[in-house]
Amino acid sequence: MKSNFLILMSDEHNPLFSGPYGNTKVKTPNMDRLAENGTVFENAYCPSPLCMPCRSSFIAGRRVHELQTYSNCNVNLDPSPLSFGKALADQGVFSVFIGKCDAYAPAKDLGFSAVMRPWDRKLPGDTSHRRNPMTIRMDAAGRSFGYGPKENAGAGDAKCVDDAVEWLNSSANSLKTPWALVVNISNPHFPHFSSQELWDMYPDDGDLPEHGPELESGRHPYAEALRKHFQTEMFTEEQMRGLRRGYLACITFVDRQLGRLMSALESSGLKDTTNIAYTSDHGEMLGKFGMWWKCSLYEDSVRVPMIVSGPEFSKGKRISTPVDLHDLRAGVFESTGALQPEGFLGSPLQFIKDKDEEKVVFSEYHGHGTPGSSYMVRKGRWKYVWHSGAPDQLFDLENDPEELANLAGQRKEIAKDMEAELRKICSPEKENGRAEDFIESQLSAM
């Protein structure tokens, strides 16, 4: 039986800051309710921990290095890859896209059946992505003031959800075919501004990161480069506390938007025929190892929430097998009865078995703040990261979920096996070179 699919995709939500993933500080009652009535994928990853690379990969069903959407610079990108919205529409599935697009082409050109309130990055996008020598954002320290109560905080996101609720109540039931709706909002992406009410909800939770830059993982050359790029070592204790407090407030704001969509499904009579998923495009380091925002393949940056409820997902189930956003998109095709185009990545979430030790998840990073490209593979308990020109890393996430001990030098056979899994996907040396050449061509074109 065919089902509809609704996705709420936030921006920069580290899943470890939510109730379903064990956080007791942040208030996420709607995420909790979604988890109780559905399935939590405990180890979900993004294709790349940066907005445009990740979103482009998700929309086109291909690897970032294949699309060459390496960074948030959108100069000389190829606008031709088939989007999943057009692939669905071509097969009779009504596809709707609302909100932030930030991809290889403007939302209006991606072939969705309907597009509302699109947000596209203006040319040339972010141009601070030179790697050799690495660009330093001389104004980045000013970001440390981006927190606190602010009038009309989240207004744009609320309007995106307004449009989605209106569409669910007025149009969805009139369709004679399955539909897929993707709602994209910007919270809890920095700056971490919120309403006064939400700010006041967390008076005692402006804490400090537990793991600082002095630890082994904080001393890795790529971690040091990112701190230098963003000038994060200039952040004061007061600012760090404020940013972390504001982040919690923003997550509760996102949770309320999720609740509005869940209520709309119920009021429109669509709940029993619609799967609803909550996810994000990447995480947020939030000061861990002295690092902020994303751009890293550490768990806090590359992990995303993945909670799905509906007729095809078991209630109260938790799956530890690593998955990614491609598996979510594949699940949309499965639910709506459409076929994924040839070459699209992902296995439908509906078919993912718990504790699959053979499934491999891949992520990559080529953007600003690092001297080269990095590649990650996750398989079972093990996570391997290859860095261009810097030591590789191997983490046993079962025994070291905080990634405090790099075992690459001790468990050489496992590191070798994991590197072999990486090389089945791509040659990291070759792709690092292609990225370097493309980035330089973008900078030259400007």
CATH class descriptor name: Alpha Beta
pLDDT averaged residue by residue: 97
- The CATH architecture category equals 3-Layer(aba) Sandwich
Main sheet properties: 8 strands, mixed
Q: Taking Cα atoms only, what radius of gyration do you get, to the nearest Å?
A: 20 Å
Biggest sheet: strand arrangement: 5-4-7-1-9-11-2-12
Morphology call: globular
Low-confidence stretches: none
- Judged by helices, strands and strand pairing, the structural class is alpha/beta
Whole-Å distance between the termini? 51 Å
Number of helices: 12
Written as H for each helix and E for each strand, in order along the chain, the element string is EHEEHHHEEEHEEHHHEHEEEEHEEEEHH
In CATH, the homologous superfamily goes by the name: Alkaline Phosphatase, subunit A
Structural commentary:
By secondary structure, the chain is of the alpha/beta class. The chain has one domain: Alkaline Phosphatase, subunit A, CATH 3.40.720. It is 31% helix and 18% strand. It has 12 helices and 17 strands. It has an 8-stranded mixed beta sheet with strand order 5-4-7-1-9-11-2-12, with helices on both faces. Strands 14-15-16-17 form a 4-stranded antiparallel beta sheet, with helices on one face. A 3-stranded mixed beta sheet has the order 10-3-13. Strand 14 and strand 15 form a beta hairpin. Helix 5 runs parallel beside helix 8. The longest helix has 31 residues. It is globular and about 55 Å long. The model has no long low-confidence stretch (mean pLDDT 97).
